[in-house]
């Protein structure tokens, strides 16, 4: 376990959240809009080939934030297209994030069945 | 009476209390960074397994683990308290996405499983899926047209 | 605009009041003034909506017992809440054989129902009418904002919906506190679009109604021992003071806000203070009415305020108009 790696993870991940907080404070954006903004920036940065440098430097700091989810989608789409042409272009993105989406739907379904909203 | 009253709106923006920028930004930074470090810890754990998983599987497993932890924390009513403290620090990580899927699912269970829980599951996070998948298809088509640039 | 202040003399009186509140309100500074309270805000029900209905039913039963009347003595019940189609109140009234009229003016519903009741009683055809409103934090969050478990930060302008219900029984002869006059408000929209900033949406409406009330009734703000707005919150009441000063009728130390009074803002993490249809009805029926019975206040002006906010209209880019009605009470 390398302390320096963890410091980089902390810095990059924290920086993304910091940008998110600035957006919340100054634009009164709701959480859904913030998520979409970050997601689209991830798609864009991956497409123009910048995000892989951020990922190499920040490790989980770049993959855990939702911006990494966007980058993953774009990465999948690019690889899929290069391998399978048009079909890959359509399915590549969702294939790359399929485990995450399937997990979130299934887990939300189970937890939704079991849990109840708590008194505030 | 339906024209916006500019003078009043200026008064409002001058007099109403503002978000405390430094405090909220500091909280978002350290909680967000910490969540990512937890992610890194799982990544390290899964890559050190004897099975020698490929990098993509490790990252998928990490995501699933974080989603699972978030779902449990949301279910027992803890994640919204973290969110109240952390702000963007717990929205921007993938855990925030998981929370925004799980919380409406819990909330709408009382209107039934099919029409309540299932149909409202993506009432907050739906745009993420729609924009995510649509944009990935657009990227795919762009790559298809300008293949040379991406090889 | 035409005159909209009406005087009732001592024809309309408060016979009895009742309040019921949730845990956070009971723990607040006014806790000891409320008649009934509950610790579990689900009240043993399966949903918060059902809990709100049970709370309202309990309140009305308690009011009937307290006043030693049975349902046949009540000519009419005018009630409301914040849910879609005022569903909570409608399902509440299914438990009673009392003629019912639903009311909705967002958080100013209590004033609307008091004014309607006062008009009907002073008209002579009705003898005894119950006005009541209820609201519940968890149902309002869901109606206007997000799922309870969603981890988002409340903005510093946000307010906390009061969990509770309050009811006033008005009649034409019994009681020592009279509803002496009312001013019906108009919808005022200064173009505020932030649905978290309810105080700023409603302050212009409150100032408009109060202004006209003082003018049409021919009294000064000092005439009242207490002027109480509904739920402007701390920042919103400061805005109102500025607006009133600019218009030349400054309000001073006799002014306060129900939303500010009901919670301890420093300790209870409620943002700018309380809000909701029950905010003015619990504070008035619990705290103010009891103080008036003891003679600590003789003349009170209650101005419940409402932000006429709908999720749909906000999403379609509409600004949020406000409304406020003024009702004055005097010890006779």
Structure description:
The complex is a heterotrimer of chains A (120), B (151) and C (332). Chain A is mainly α. Chain A has one domain (3-114). Chain A contains six helices and no strands. Chain A has helices spanning 3-27, 31-47, 51-58, 60-63, 66-84, 86-114. The longest helix of chain A is centred in the last third of the chain and has 29 residues, at 86-114. The mean pLDDT of chain A is 91. In chain B, helix 2 (21-47) packs across helix 3 (55-75) and helix 3 crosses helix 5 (94-107). Chain B contains eight helices and no strands. The radius of gyration of chain B is 21 Å and the shape is extended. Chain B is an all-alpha fold and 151 residues long. The mean pLDDT of chain B is 90. Chain C contains eleven helices and 16 strands. In chain C, strands 1, 2, 3, 4, 5, 6, 8, 9, 10, 11, 13 and 16 form a twelve-stranded mixed beta sheet that branches. With 332 residues, chain C is an alpha/beta fold. Chain C has two domains: 12-171, Stage V sporulation protein AD (Peroxisomal Thiolase, Chain A, domain 1, 3-Layer(aba) Sandwich); 177-331, 3-Layer(aba) Sandwich (Peroxisomal Thiolase, Chain A, domain 1). Helix content of chain C is 35%, strand content 22%. Chains in contact: A-B, A-C, B-C. Chains A and B meet through helix 1, helix 2, helix 4, helix 5 and helix 6 of A and helix 2, helix 3, helix 5, helix 6 and helix 7 of B.
Distance between the termini of chain C: 32 Å
| Helix-and-strand structural type of chain A | mainly alpha
Number of E-type strands of chain A: 0
Please give the CATH class of the largest domain in chain C: Alpha Beta
Task: Spell out the blueprint of helices and strands.
The complex is a heterotrimer of chains A (120), B (151) and C (332).
Chain A lengths: L2 H25 L3 H17 L3 H8 L1 H4 L2 H19 L1 H29 L6
Helix pairs in contact in A: 2-5, 5-6
Chain B lengths: L5 H10 L5 H27 L7 H21 L3 H8 L7 H14 L5 H8 L5 H20 L1 H4 L1
Helix pairs in contact in B: 2-3, 3-5, 5-6
Chain C lengths: L4 E3 L5 E9 L1 H4 L9 E2 L10 H19 L9 E5 L6 H7 L6 E3 L6 H14 L5 E8 L1 H8 L15 E2 L2 E8 L5 E7 L14 H20 L8 E4 L3 H14 L8 E3 H5 L2 H4 L5 E2 L1 H17 L5 E5 L1 E3 L3 H5 L6 E3 L1 E6 L1
Parallel strand pairs in C: 2-3, 4-5, 4-6, 7-12, 10-11, 10-13
Antiparallel strand pairs in C: 1-9, 2-8, 2-9, 6-8, 9-16, 13-16, 14-15
Helix pairs in contact in C: 2-3, 6-7
């Amino acid at each position: 376990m390398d302390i320096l790696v963890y410091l980089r993870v902390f810095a990059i991940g924290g920086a993304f959240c910091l940008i998110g907080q600035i957006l919340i404070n100054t634009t009164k954006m709701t959480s859904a809009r913030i998520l979409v903004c970050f997601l689209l920036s991830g798609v864009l940065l991956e497409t123009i080939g910048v995000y892989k440098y951020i990922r190499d430097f920040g490790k989980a700091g770049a993959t855990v934030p939702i911006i990494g989810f966007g980058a993953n989608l774009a990465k999948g789409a690019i690889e899929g297209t290069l391998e399978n042409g048009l079909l890959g272009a359509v399915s590549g993105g969702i294939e790359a994030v399929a485990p995450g989406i399937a997990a979130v739907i299934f887990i939300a379904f189970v937890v939704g069945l079991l849990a109840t909203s708590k008194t505030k | 009476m339906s024209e916006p009253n500019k003078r009043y709106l200026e008064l409002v923006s001058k007099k109403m209390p503002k978000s405390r920028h430094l405090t909220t930004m500091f909280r978002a930074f350290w909680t967000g960074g910490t969540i990512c470090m937890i992610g890194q810890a799982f990544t390290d754990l899964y890559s050190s397994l004897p099975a020698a998983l490929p990098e993509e599987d490790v990252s998928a497993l990490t995501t699933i683990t974080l989603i699972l932890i978030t779902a449990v924390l949301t279910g027992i009513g803890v994640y919204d308290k973290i969110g109240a403290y952390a702000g963007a620090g717990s929205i921007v990580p993938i855990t925030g996405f998981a929370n925004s899927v799980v919380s409406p699912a819990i909330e709408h269970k009382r209107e039934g499983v099919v029409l309540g829980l299932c149909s409202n599951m993506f009432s907050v996070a739906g745009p993420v899926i729609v924009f995510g998948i649509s944009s990935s298809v657009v990227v795919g088509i762009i790559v298809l047209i300008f293949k040379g640039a991406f090889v | 605009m035409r005159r909209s202040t009406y005087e009732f003399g001592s024809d309309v009186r408060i016979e009895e009041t009742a309040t019921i509140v949730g845990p956070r309100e009971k723990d607040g500074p006014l806790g000891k003034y409320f008649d009934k309270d509950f610790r579990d805000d689900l009240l043993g029900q399966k949903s918060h909506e059902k809990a709100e209905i049970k709370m309202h039913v309990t309140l009305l039963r308690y009011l009937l017992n307290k006043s030693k009347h049975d349902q046949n003595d009540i000519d009419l019940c005018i009630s409301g809440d914040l849910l879609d189609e005022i569903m909570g109140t409608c399902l509440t009234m299914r438990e009673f054989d009392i003629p019912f009229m639903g009311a909705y003016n967002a958080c100013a519903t209590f004033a609307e129902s008091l004014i309607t009741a006062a008009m009907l009683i002073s008209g002579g055809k009705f003898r005894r009418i119950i006005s009541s409103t209820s609201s519940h934090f968890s149902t309002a969050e869901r109606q206007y904002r997000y799922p309870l478990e969603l981890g988002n930060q409340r903005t510093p302008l946000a307010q906390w919906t009061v969990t509770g219900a309050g009811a006033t029984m008005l009649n034409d002869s019994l009681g020592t506190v009279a509803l002496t006059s009312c001013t019906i408000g108009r919808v005022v929209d200064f173009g505020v679009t932030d649905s978290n900033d309810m105080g700023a949406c409603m302050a212009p409406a409150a100032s408009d109604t109060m202004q006209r009330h003082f003018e049409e009734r021919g009294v000064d703000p000092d005439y009242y021992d207490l002027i109480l707005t509904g739920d402007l919150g701390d920042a919103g009441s400061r805005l109102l003071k500025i607006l009133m000063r600019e218009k030349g009728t400054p309000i001073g130390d006799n002014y306060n806000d129900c939303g500010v009074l009901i919670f301890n803002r420093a300790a209870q993490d409620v943002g700018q203070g309380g809000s909701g249809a029950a905010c003015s009805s619990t504070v008035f029926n619990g705290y103010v009415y009891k103080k008036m019975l003891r003679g600590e206040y003789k003349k009170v002006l209650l101005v419940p305020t409402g932000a006429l906010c709908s999720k749909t209209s906000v999403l379609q880019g509409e600004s949020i108009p406000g409304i406020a009605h003024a009702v004055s009470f005097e010890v006779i």
